[in-house]
Structure prediction request, 191 residues.
Amino acid sequence: RVVHLTFDDGPSPYTLALLEVLQAHGVKATFFMVGQEIRRYPEVVQAVHQRGHAIGNHTENHRDLTSGSTDARAQLAATSAAILDATGRAPACARPPMGRTNDEVDAIARALGMTMFNSASPNLDGGDYTTPQVPVAAMMLVLDRIPSTPDPVITTFHDGGGDRANTVKAFDQWLDANGSLYRFETLPVCR
Prediction:
């Protein structure tokens, strides 16, 4: 079974810990990054890129792109520029915060050379964006639903936006027990 692990809201110091876990298990993932965090942690972005993971655009500061008060073009263009500066490669995909997009936002993304990957309803949502963070056991239960989820499986977890230590722990434990059962790939639209 193919599993596409995706992580939003980074980069952050937790991204580095997550990279170590993924590397230990030979797993590739897709990271949807926020522009202001990219400029704060450019070395983390470079590490994600150098280890062969895909990087997508998750806007400049995690704003609703469909809001009349948000300049969607500026949000996406600034983040694409930050990714290009950090990695030497422009992103091929974007994910809208909170899954909110429309035809206009999709057209803006296309004009900027990206496919909008809308995962408002991913196959499996880890729910790890809350504060305080979801317990490790609860995230493990989400991951344990992979066998009963339609192929290909797309998960959404978070490596930024708060304390993500439990996310790192959950993936370390789950991959130790289950990593060899699946083929992990980056999202094709983001390659």
